[in-house]
Amino acid sequence: MAAGRVAHVTLQGPSVVKEILTGMGLALFAGSFWKMHQWNEQRKVRAFYDLLEKGEISVVVDEE
């Protein structure tokens, strides 16, 4: 009986290029969501100040 050879996977260190590209991809993905959030908030603030300037809304409570 001949002993069979089993091919073992050798563990290698992390691929630096793959790590950098993965990090950049995740950063762009998260950054785009953050930027969309900031644009949405900016739009809300501009709409508020436009309505305030037109006199359609007021920040002063009316006394009854």
UniProtKB/TrEMBL annotation:
Keywords: Membrane, Mitochondrion, Mitochondrion inner membrane, Transmembrane, Transmembrane helix. InterPro entries: COX5C. It is found in: Mitochondrion inner membrane. One of its GO terms (cellular component) is mitochondrial inner membrane. The chain crosses the membrane at residues 20-36. Signal peptide: none annotated. This protein is one of the nuclear-coded polypeptide chains of cytochrome c oxidase, the terminal oxidase in mitochondrial electron transport. Belongs to the cytochrome c oxidase subunit 5C family. This is Cytochrome c oxidase subunit 5C.
